[in-house]
Amino acid sequence: MGNLASRRPPLAAGVGRRRRFVGAASLLVAGLAAIVAGGGATLGLAYYRRVADQASAPVITDVAVTGFTTSVKTTSEPLSSGLMKWRADWSLCWDPSPNAIGYDLQVLTAEGISPRLRRQLKPCLDVEVAAGEAPPERVEREQRIQMSIQRSQLSYRVRAAFPDNRVGEWSREISAGEDLGAPPT
Q: Which of 12, 18, 100, 110 is deepest in the core (most CB within 10 A)?
């Protein structure tokens, strides 16, 4: 049985260069998509680095994200079956950090800490924490049960990101659905 490489026909001249060009073009398209999805030119592929890549980022020890507030927005609509379709969205917001170019969010679950960071520009995170269909009289109960489960299994922590690949300290873990009070109006 010979080796697979020995059965391949030789590459035509320029094919390797074309493959490198296609690879670079794909990377460029992915970067542009990340910029569009992230909402600004300051975002890019660098915002989606693994935690291991950011472990060496200099930490500014006297800078931490503060001023956390939360809110829950529930929506529902009647279905033709007589049930109500509902969902609960939880918002976690914090005070903007001076000179921050974004905020790193890390997911912590009952299984462990996610190796990926999510960087965003705005000092707020919106997450659907519960959803379902139920008879109208059971919607509130179902929401409380699902949100209680989420609080026990899903948390976030936040840190500010600054120019020159510097970051602030991680905040405490905040459970999804946790009630820290609404922002002042």
A: 100
Q: What is the pTM of this model?
A: 0.64
Residue with tokens 């260069």: 17
Residue 59 · residue 167 · CB < 8 Å: yes
Residue 151 neighbours by CB distance under 10 Å? 17
Domain residue extents for the chain: 12-48, 50-185
Q: Give the E-state strand segments of 55-170 in sequence order.
A: 59-64, 69-78, 84-93, 102-109, 112-120, 124-134, 154-162, 166-169
- Residue 50 DSSP label: B
Q: Are 77 and 85 in contact (CB under 8 A)?
A: yes
Q: How far is it, in rounded angstroms, from Cα 7 to Cα 124?
A: 56
Give 104's strand partners: 119, 159
Strands laid side by side in the 84-93 sheet: 69-78, 84-93, 124-134
**Residue 173 CB: number of other CB atoms within 10 A?**
13
Tens-digit pLDDT profile for residues 91-110: 999 999 999 999 999 999 98
